[in-house]
Design the sequence.
């Protein structure tokens, strides 16, 4: 009887605590998940490798207004290290791609250039860095010059590595001043350049103010001995390199239990992210939630969102406002504080995701991206700079932390936001910047195409409710910066490191494991032997190459998800076909397995199209022509040599051939000279007519073998 009574009471007690146990379990699981998403940026000491020094011609690019003697100090250090420095002085405000290319080309003088050292920003004016957007617009002068220089060098010196120098773009240790948001943009953009064009990337070096002779000498030693490091900072205490590390909170006690109160402002408030944040704020104590966006009440779903927030007990105001416009931002804040009281918290989720490679992005596009993210944040920072603001939250992106192809402007903007949070903290104000990964639930910071790209590259979507919990934890712990992303490093790391090593992520255990597994897979491929090689061994060289070309095209189609090989031209550039770092590694892995040999991660980057790659593989796998295999006297119409020559010729626009006087010569070589009255059609059909050139003529033309004399 007693047992039944005790059992009944125990069961009743359990029923009373079960909801609390369930909530505790949910919270514990969420914390564990969030801990696996959290990262921070750290700096570790670095000693450059002992190298014999620098060699060759180095260009030193400086803006004209850099009148602090920095250029002379850098030149002397390069000369002392064994290089031949040549100064390129850029007039104030000049950022035009063509004019910069002309200056660089003139300075190079037709000689090879071992490297380019660029200091795109002038010395700081007296009193330190300027606050707020630059007078000429949302793109600071240093960022604009760096962008123009990146594009100009791609046009005239694509083989010369670029090193970008900054001053105060990053804060390495506690004694450093807060990072400068303008200079931080150069770092965000530089990380993307290193991904898009690893072949012409040197790195980023942050200097301690105006460099003196000893600092410049250390810089020269660094250029010679940095190895794979490409994100470095020189300080009086030594040289430091940038690293990504995990930042779990574990059982750490939060210093506060932050809850929204009073009036809270959410920019981009009618968007997907803004909506998630607004609902969380309304459900956790915010009395008045102000949602701003460019369209305001006219934005799709705005009325429905307002109704949901009202049902949660909050007063809601939806207002059209472009916070990048200082007058609109000021009027909006003044009206809100007049009618709803002081703004207690700001959540800046506004921004425009932009995807265009650095070589193609225009200054106007770059400015648009910076305006939405950076200029808006700076306007709000200036307007809400009092102690009554208890949270000033900037929604940043990991594109600014580790870079993302095609997002140079977006990365620059987000790196600037992270620096702005540091700068605000240094002024004693509240500030938190969260560099987000991919939000799930169909409500992301990315368009569908970009989301698919990110998923494929190892960024897994985060459940919105758990991402909001991660934000709440960051506010409870009063953090200035944290990176929050669900990364599948086994997928991310091989693609991210395909073209060159990436020390930024090298210290993460998951990255080391992923790269070890990749190396083991290479070993397995090599041990599997060469059945394909044995099959090819008895064939003529041209047939060997054709078979390899077919293999490459089939595997490329499979990697890109094509049902047939029709969309894979034999001379089409891999980059233009849609290959990126991840798919390049996947194609490399397939070819290594099929050929039974280890292949470098840069295989696809080093050989620009299937025809060139086929020729390389034949030379690698079958370096000597086997006995009895008769090499043809001329390449066949489907051979890789024919394809390479044809590709080289058809890449030249017909108008350029005509202007140079070569079009008629090429057509005569093909036996297809223009008849009277055909000139008008010749330009439009030039590529088709070059296609008709026989193999011997193509080879002679490509090699320059006396074509004029043979006419």
Sequence:
């Amino acid at each position: 009887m007693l047992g039944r009574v005790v059992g009944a009471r125990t069961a009743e007690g359990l029923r009373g605590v079960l909801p609390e146990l369930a909530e505790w379990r949910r919270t514990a699981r969420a914390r564990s998940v969030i801990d696996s998403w959290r990262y921070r940026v750290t700096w570790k000491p670095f000693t450059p490798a002992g190298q014999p020094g620098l060699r060759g011609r180095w260009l030193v690019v400086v803006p004209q207004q850099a009148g602090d003697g920095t250029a002379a100090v850098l030149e002397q250090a390069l000369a002392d290290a064994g290089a031949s420095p040549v100064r390129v002085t850029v007039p104030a405000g000049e950022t035009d791609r063509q004019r910069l290319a002309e200056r660089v080309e003139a300075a190079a003088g037709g000689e090879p250039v071992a490297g380019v050292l660029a200091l795109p920003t002038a010395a700081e004016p007296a009193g330190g860095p300027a606050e707020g957007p630059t007078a000429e617009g949302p793109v600071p002068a240093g960022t604009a010059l760096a962008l123009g220089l990146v594009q100009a060098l791609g046009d005239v010196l694509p083989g010369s590595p670029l090193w970008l120098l900054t001053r105060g773009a990053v804060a390495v240790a506690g004694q450093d001043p807060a990072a400068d948001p303008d200079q931080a943009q150069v770092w965000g953009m530089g990380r993307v350049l290193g991904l898009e064009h690893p072949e012409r990337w040197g790195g980023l070096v942050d200097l301690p103010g105006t460099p003196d002779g000893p600092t410049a000498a250390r810089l020269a030693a660094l250029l010679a001995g940095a190895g794979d490091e490409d994100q470095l900072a020189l300080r009086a205490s030594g040289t430091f390199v940038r690293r990504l590390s995990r930042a779990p909170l574990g059982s750490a006690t939060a210093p506060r239990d932050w809850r929204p109160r009073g009036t809270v402002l959410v920019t981009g408030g009618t968007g997907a992210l803004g909506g998630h944040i607004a609902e969380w704020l309304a459900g956790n104590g915010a009395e008045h939630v102000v949602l701003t966006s460019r369209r305001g009440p006219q934005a799709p779903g705005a009325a429905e969102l307002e109704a949901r927030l009202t049902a949660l007990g909050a007063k809601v105001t939806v207002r059209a406002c472009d916070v990048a416009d200082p007058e609109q931002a000021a009027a909006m804040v003044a009206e809100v504080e007049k009618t709803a009281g002081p703004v207690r918290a700001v959540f800046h989720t506004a921004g425009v995701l932009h995807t265009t490679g650095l070589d193609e992005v225009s200054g106007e596009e770059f400015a648009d991206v910076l305006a939405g993210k950076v200029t808006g944040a700076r306007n709000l920072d200036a307007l809400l700079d009092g102690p009554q603001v208890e949270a000033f939250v900037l929604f940043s992106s990991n594109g600014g932390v580790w870079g993302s192809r095609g997002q140079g402007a977006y990365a620059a903007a987000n790196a600037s936001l992270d620096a702005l949070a540091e700068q605000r903290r240094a002024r004693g104000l509240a500030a938190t910047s969260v560099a987000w990964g991919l939000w799930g639930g169909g409500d992301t910071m990315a368009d569908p195409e970009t989301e698919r790209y990110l998923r494929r590259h190892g960024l897994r979507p985060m459940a919105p409710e758990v991402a909001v919990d991660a934000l709440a934890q960051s506010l409870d712990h009063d953090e200035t910066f944290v990176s929050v992303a669900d990364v599948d490093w086994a997928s991310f790391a091989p693609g991210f490191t395909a073209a060159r090593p990436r020390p930024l992520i090298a210290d993460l255990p998951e990255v080391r494991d992923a790269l070890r597994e990749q190396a083991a897979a290479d070993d397995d491929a090599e041990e599997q032997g060469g059945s394909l090689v044995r099959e090819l061994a008895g064939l003529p060289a041209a047939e060997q190459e054709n078979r390899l070309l077919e293999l490459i095209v089939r595997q490329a189609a499979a990697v890109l998800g094509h049902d047939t090989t029709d969309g894979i031209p034999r001379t089409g550039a891999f980059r233009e076909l849609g290959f990126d770092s991840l798919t390049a590694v996947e194609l490399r892995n397939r070819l290594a397995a099929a050929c039974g040999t280890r292949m470098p991660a840069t295989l696809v980057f080093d050989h620009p199209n299937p025809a060139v790659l086929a020729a390389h593989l034949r030379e690698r796998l079958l370096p000597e022509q086997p006995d009895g295999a008769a090499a043809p006297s001329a390449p066949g119409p489907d051979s890789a040599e024919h394809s390479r020559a044809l590709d080289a010729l058809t890449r030249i626009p017909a108008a350029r051939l005509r202007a140079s006087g070569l079009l008629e010569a090429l057509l005569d070589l093909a036996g297809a000279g223009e008849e009277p009255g055909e000139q008008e059609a010749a330009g439009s059909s030039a590529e088709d007519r070059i296609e008709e050139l026989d193999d011997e003529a193509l080879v002679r033309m490509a090699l320059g073998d006396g074509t004029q004399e043979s006419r």
User: Anything to note?
Assistant: The two ends are 116 Å apart (CA to CA).
